[in-house]
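> tool_call: predict_assembly(chains=two)
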Amino acid sequence: MSVMLSRSAENIYWMGRYLERGANLCRMLQVAEQLTVEIRGLAPDEAVGFWAGFADVYPGSPPFDEGIDVDAARMAGLHAWLLGQGNVLSVATSVHHARENARAIREYLTREVFEQINECWLRLDAGLRGEAGPDVLLGQVQQAIFGIGGTISRTLIRDEAWVFLDVGVMLERVYRVLLLLRHRLPMLMATPDDIDIPVHHALLRAVLRSAGSLENYRRVHGAALSPRQVWSFLFFDQLCPHSVAFGISNMQEDLAGIERGGVLTDAAMQVGRLASQLRYEAQDLLGRHDFSAVCDGLAADVDRIHESLTRLYFTV
Amino acid sequence: MALPWKAAPTGYDEALAANDTARGLYRSVIETLGDFDAADVRRREELQEVSLVNQGITFTVYGEEEGTERTFPFDFVPRIIGSDEWESLEKGLVQRVTAINLFLEDVYGDQRCLREGVVPFDLVLSRSDFRRELIGTRPRHGVFTHITGVDLLRGEQGEFLVLEDNCRCPSGVSYVLENRNLLSRVFPEIFANYGVRPVDSYPQMLLDALKFSAPRGRERPSVAVLTPGLNNSAYFEHSFLAREMGVPLVEGRDLIVENDQVSMRTTRGRQRVDVLYRRVDDAFLDPVVFNAGSLLGVPGLIHAWRAGNITIANAPGAGVADDKSIYPWMPDIIRFFLDEEPLLAQVHTLIGRKPDDAAYIREHLSELVVKLTDGAGGYGMLVGPTASSAEIAEFATVFEERPEAYIAQPLVEFSSHPTWTGDGYAPRRVDMRPFVLYGESIRVLPGGLTRVALQEGSYVVNSSQGGGSKDTWVLAEELLR
């Protein structure tokens, strides 16, 4: 198929975004589950706060009830973020949207990819009908989403559809990592004298795991954990697949593949500027003390890239 | 323990003779299935169902919760047609589709068959699917129905009868291909002694026919499938055909007409479309010409088609040929245009617009099958012999309001076929829709959609009303052994 409909490009882009969102949410839920076990005896408020913090990474979702205990927070979190009860930014909603996108562009997908997405949705649908509890379902759905990623990687042809899919995946990933860091790191950077080191480290590990990068971080930096090191790694490491630099660099390559007649598009220029900034201005950025503003600025840039893509390719 | 096979108590049983023994073509398949006990069969049936659900091979049900998707139940006992019988059936189908296209070319052209009284003038002109706006339009090569689905029954002696023609957007071919795929995976053993003609060349046959129909001078025509969208009941099929042919699946909003040229909105700007395989009804194709409120259509599309800049398959206006009130004249149409006797018989039909026929229908509702001339999917019909007296009385009132909108046929005791019921095999009624493609020549897919009425005693095979489907085998030669 030599031409790609704008509507199809938009659908496959969003399919990528929704699948990535579902994967991110599953991972964050797994991390929250584990963190709850680790620190509930030491710092129950921190555990509840971690569940409540989902709403910061996914703005627009309903706020968490205040004053609930750890177990209530855990169950409310699983129900809201996995099954989407009262929450449109959940794993279930993301996978449902991804499936609808996939149905709209089935001619671009392999049979295997569609089947995996469909099966993943059917699992969640069973959960929504009360046939499986969220704690059991979480692991199954996470595996299913990983399976989709693997099948996409192994079976889809690397054509224009692939580019839009990958741009969607990368853009969603970068955006959520920025929001994750923006809301989880600042309080860990402000280290009071009476800091509880085990809890502090557990929270830092949770940030890295939430970004799917704990083991990768250890391979580069060993066991030493510091908020600034985590910042540096998740921003600038060119090899870690969940770092901002990696995602932007991938998008740069993707967009180069679909430039029109060699003319640099707005989106490609915006991505290029970001890639240069992350590559050549790392030290300046790391020296800044307004970490939240840095994250907000980059997230706004990513938003603009999304708008440019929409204007350039999806609304022809 | 081997499960029993019982022949149908009434009508023709395709697989079993009256003494419950297998007919020749069916011996091997029945013998092989005899090796499975009920538990084996149920396990394989579950695999079938899971496979259909996981692959999303579904149709959307209207009138229920929005977007309800259902699988089309699949019965694994295949229907088998021998090569000789298929050959004569094929000839009849080619003859019929040839005549249908000559008829359409004529009613939108010289109207010779109307002037000479072969078909009543006012009947054709009063059909809702006759498009006056299109008079004087001749599609490329004079072909209106690039894809035709002809619904067939077997009568009481096993002879094929045409029940109706589908000249607009006949659906179901995706199930023909998927059923074969499914059966060969779940019950591979039953293929052992048969040379079954493959059906998977259909997408290529279709693409060839569509490309052949492209406007003059388009060397590498671009083809697209036009769908109403995700919520259409046949969306799976639209998407399936686009994928299998390797062409884009477009919706009306993806297309734009400028200077009578039709283009798709793509990531690289607008790209011309040469052939549109539309799965959208005429009324919704172009809000400028037909239904002004349609959001599914493309403004200016019909004008571009009339200008010869795009092929629409099937051509707009083709629906008049499958109107149920034109059907009774089809044998005369064949004789008039081809100077041949019809090779395929059809069901005797009474026409509500004829006063004598209407009177007969009125008095014999309990014996007849009465259908709306522009109805489909089994809706708006009465099956008199199985209806209650209250249903007949209610229908009589509706009929009286517009008798001209109905036709009626005697209930054909059409054929049955062994079908799995969950704990054994029992006869269930079946029809068949072969698919006929009109490109450089007329070609018939060796197979077809066999629909089966899954309820005991039922005559209704429609997917929307409890029907299922079967794999249809056309044999390359009678039997390998």
